[in-house]
Amino acid sequence: MYKEMNLKEVLIRFKPFYKQYWKQFVIVGIGMLLASGGTSASAYMIKPILDQIFIDKKETMLYFAPFLFFLIYFLKNAGSYLQTYYISYIGTDILRILRSKVLKNILRLDMDFFKRHRSGELISRCTNDIGALQNVVSSVIPDFLTQLITAIGLLGVAVSQSPRLAFFALIIFPITIIPLFYLVKKLKLYARNIQEKNSDLLSRLGEIFSNIELVKANNAQEKERQKFDQENKSFCKIILKSTRINALTSPMMEVIGSIGVAVMIIVGGHEAIKGNVTVGSFFAFISALFWSYTPIKRLSNLYGGLQGAIAASERTFYLLDLEPEIKGGDKELKSIKNIQFKKVEFAYDNSSKKVLNGIDFEFSKGETLALVGMSGGGKSSIINLLMYFYEKNKGEILFNDVDIHHFNIESLRDKIGLVTQNIYLFNDSFAENVAYSEDLDEERVIEALKLANAYEFVESMGGIYAEIKEHGKNLSGGQKQRIAIARALYKNPDLLIFDEATSALDNESEKAIMKTIENLKKERLILMIAHRLSTVENADKIVVIDKGQVLAIGKDEELLKTCELYRKFKNKEKEMKA
Ligand SMILES: Nc1ncnc2c1ncn2[C@@H]1O[C@H](COP(=O)(O)OP(=O)(O)OP(=O)(O)O)[C@@H](O)[C@H]1O
Question: How far is the CA of 376 from the centre of ligand 1 (A)?
Answer without folding.
Answer: 5
